[in-house]
Amino acid sequence: MKSTRFALLMALFVIPVIQTIAAQGDTTTVTVSGTLIEGPQCTINSGRDVTVDFGDDLITRLVDGANYKKEIDYPLTCTGSAANSGAALKVTIRGNAAGFGSGLIATTKTGLGIRLLSGASGNTTLTPGNYVNFSGTANKPRLWAVPVAQNSSTLTAGSFSGTGTMVIDFQ
Fold first, then answer.
1. Furthest C-alpha separation in the chain
2. Is the entire prediction scored with pTM above 0.85?
3. pLDDT by residue for the chain (171 residues), tens digit each?
4. Which runs of consecutive H residues, i.e. helices, occur in the chain?
């Protein structure tokens, strides 16, 4: 019984001492450092709107998401330390979604949307709001737009327009 009391008393005194030693332990200072830089400042088309003109001779029954594809010409200049020498950039076009299909920009014409594409020949769908990564302005991706008719829609003749916002971001 005496040994049990002795062990219990020792535990009451020794455990707090061990906890104090473990809590204090060895310490050192961690120093964090770095250099902040500004990302490149980019300007699209000298700050003017980018226009894709499909012309005035689109035949309504031939609007199928393949015919009338046009490249989006967007001159891009960037400033900053890494702008033209391989800066990690990304581009997207955001816009209101058409009321049909997926990934189409809305237009003013019922049953007509615009599909965005990327790649050398415009074979990769660019969903509005999704980014295409690239390195430096010399390697900006080629972007395309193509009109798409709603499957069950018969397009009517007349003018149309649609808008989106092109965004260049630093990765």
1. 106
2. no
3. 455 444 444 444 545 555 555 556 788 889 999 887 777 788 999 999 999 999 999 999 999 999 999 999 999 998 875 555 678 899 999 999 999 988 999 999 999 999 999 999 999 999 999 999 998 888 999 999 999 999 867 899 999 999 999 999 988
4. 2-24
d(CA 146, CA 64): 9
Q: What tokens were used for 7?
A: 């062990």
Angle at 117 between CA 111 and CA 123, to 5 degrees: 115
Q: Can you spell out the DSSP letters for 82-104?
A: TTTTT-EEEEEEE-PBPSSSSSE
* Contact in structure between 147 and 117 (CB atoms under 8 Å): no
